[in-house]
Specification:
This protein is of the alpha/beta class. Helices cover about 40% and strands about 10% of the residues. The strands form three sheets. It has a four-stranded parallel β-sheet.
Length: about 210
């Protein structure tokens, strides 16, 4: 991995890390996708029953490759926005603080872009698994139902779930209520049942 150049960059220019402290590559970069497809291929050839991806959410990234892809996204999917606001796609500023509750159309577009690139990842990795193992199971843990909007995690839940055979939900200890709906695994099981995807539950910490 040290030979790759495309590290994830947080809005505002800071280092983007996953799983506490680990700096990560941009997970929608072509380098990372090729690398991960290679791991999937090796695993299937060694007899794996499928693919399991932990932390399959996707934080916003503003690395040069993502900026280029976001500009293309605006051109292809938000041309009216560019026209109305007289924006040049390559020069659109991505807000440093990404909020899911903002009416800023650029921020909303960036959330849509982020969810789309995560869906592309899941589709690419699932297709790679099926190429070598047509009966393989595709599963992941998007770390949802913890009180944040799914969009904040880069997950468009329904199409995301439809790409999976199993979703892992690890929030047995999260029992808060938000907007009148219980969070944690109660909410997760209900959402997974509505989406028609199998769910496996667990919990790794108690929320204080």
């Amino acid at each position: 991995l040290q030979n790759f150049d495309t590290f994830a960059v947080a809005p505002g220019g800071g280092v983007r890390s996953y799983a506490y402290y680990r700096r990560t590559l941009c997970q929608s970069s072509e380098d990372f996708r090729s690398y991960f497809k290679g791991l999937i291929r090796k695993a299937q050839n060694l007899g794996a029953n499928g693919v399991w991806i932990d932390n399959s959410y996707l934080h916003p990234c503003v690395c040069p490759e993502c900026r280029e892809k976001f500009a293309r996204f605006l051109q292809e999917e938000r041309p009216q926005l560019l026209e109305e606001l007289k924006l040049i796609p390559e020069k659109v500023e991505i807000p440093e603080y990404i909020s899911t509750h903002s009416n800023d159309p650029v921020m909303q577009s960036f959330h849509d872009f982020n969810m789309k690139r995560n869906l592309e990842n899941m589709q690419i990795f699932r297709d790679e698994m099926l190429k070598y193992n047509p009966d393989g199971l595709f599963a992941s843990n998007p770390a949802l139902h913890r009180g944040k909007p799914n969009a904040f995690s880069g997950v468009d839940f329904l199409p995301f779930a439809e790409l999976h055979d199993i979703l892992y939900i690890e929030n047995a200890q999260t029992v808060d209520v938000e907007e009148g709906v219980r969070l944690g695994n109660y909410r997760a099981f209900a959402d997974c049942e509505a989406a028609g995807v199998a769910a496996v539950s667990g919990g790794w910490r108690h929320k204080v």
